[in-house]
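Researcher: Next entry in the queue.
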Amino acid sequence: MAQIINIQDFQTADFKLPVNSLTNNELQAVIDRVETEVLEDLLGEELAILFLNDLQNGVPQSSIYNDIFNKFRIKATICEPLYVSKGIKNMLKSYVVFEYSKLIETQHTMVGTASGQSETSSKYSALNSSKVIESYFNATRTFNAITKLIYENINNYPEYQGIGFRDNISII
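Model: Structure for this entry, 172 residues:
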């Protein structure tokens, strides 16, 4: 069960998703999967467990975890870009928007994969939506900023075993 984000996070503003009582279970499954997978990719399994154990009401209590949880900027140098983190919660919500949008694009039925069709309108492709792609890019930008912060303070995170920087090209 996710500890940082929940279904209510996707009912307003930039993260609004089309959900109802029939799709809540699907969204919750995506939330649970994304939170686990992204935190393990970002931190490694051991540090992700330590991070999650430090949470109280979805917020870390220790300063080393608050440093990576909250928004921050790492100033750019001549040879490096500006690193901007919108915070772990925002990153996770952005990845959920992307993953859930992929899920609702098609439905898996007894006769195969199908997409919705209507006599009076055509279905809008969620995957082509600039909002969905922007969500992925913003999440990846935060993922990379947190990775950079950890690299710069590796002595504070000796259990770190994350995958390193993510490439935005991987969705294409």
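Model: DSSP finds five helices and six strands in the chain.
Researcher: Noted, moving on.
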